[in-house]
Design goal:
The complex is a heterodimer of chains A (189) and B (61). Chain A is α/β, with parallel strands linked by helices. Helices cover 40% and strands 24% of the residues of chain A. Chain A starts with a helix and ends with a strand. The chains are: A alpha/beta (189), B mainly beta (61).
């Protein structure tokens, strides 16, 4: 299967070392929204575990074997799984984190329904994404080298994501849209 | 995979319970084994400490 994250995991992971300022800024904005992680806080689409490890999120769901192994080496408990079919029981997670994940899904709706399903009552979903038409998307569109990962990506505006959340039975509680990167905290409706 | 993780894991297809069968483990966690869904009759492998709970047919890559 031609999965760019599987074949080019190291290249994907290198972004974080090549862009320390951007990573730190995104991390700070996600940390502000996410309740202090407990043992059952989960990152869905944990990738190589950079965000989960830095935030103290103990559990990551990730389809890619190569990225999942990198996350495990960073101390994250990894389960291979799909955002659209989470292998987690209903209502078990006080926090669910998804960072730059929805742009790689053919349809974000099933993944958002799954995030809602696994949230415990009063739990918080933190969804971070590159905004359609924003500064980051425009910058990457101008750099051919970045197309490997983003060529299949589909971007959404903050309003579009808020509407998708509501359709999935979630209520946006706070929206932080700046510089082309948006972080939304949402709870169960 | 730490054993206590089993409490929150379920089959990604039917959300049913999973039975843990351990092949190897160390003092911290299960390294090799399976998580079996009785309802679906599926064995999900645990390899190098990572359970593979991708829906069946998607675990090839």
């Amino acid at each position: 299967m031609d999965d760019p994250f599987e074949a080019h995991a190291a290249e994907y992971d290198r972004w974080f070392e090549e862009h320390p300022a951007e990573f730190r800024a995104e991390l700070a904005r996600v940390r502000r929204m996410l309740p202090a992680p407990g043992p059952r806080t989960v990152e869905v689409g944990a990738g190589s575990g950079r965000f989960a490890a830095a935030l103290g999120v103990p559990l990551g769901i990730e389809p890619s074997r190569a990225l999942g192994r990198m996350a495990r080496e960073r101390g994250v408990e990894v389960v291979r799984g799909r955002a659209e079919a989470l292998p987690l029981r209903d209502g078990t997670c006080p926090g669910v984190l998804m960072v730059t994940v929805i742009c790689f899904l053919g349809d974000p709706a099933p993944a958002l329904r799954e995030a809602r399903r696994v949230l415990e009552p009063g739990g918080i979903l933190v969804l971070a994404f590159i905004e359609r038409g924003g500064a980051i998307e425009r910058m990457y569109a101008a750099r051919e080298g970045k197309r490997r990962f983003l060529s299949r990506a589909r971007f959404y505006s903050a309003d579009e994501v808020s509407a998708l959340l509501r359709t999935a039975g979630l209520v946006p509680l706070e929206v932080d849209a700046r510089g082309g990167f948006c972080v939304i905290a949402a709870g169960r409706a | 995979m730490r054993r206590d993780l089993q409490e929150i894991l379920c089959c990604p297809v039917c959300h049913g319970d999973l039975d843990l069968a351990v092949i190897t483990e160390d003092e911290v966690e299960v390294l090799e084994g399976t998580l079996h869904c009785r309802a679906c009759g599926i064995d999900y492998p645990i390899e190098d400490g990572i359970p593979n709970l991708l829906p069946p047919g998607e675990g090839a890559f």
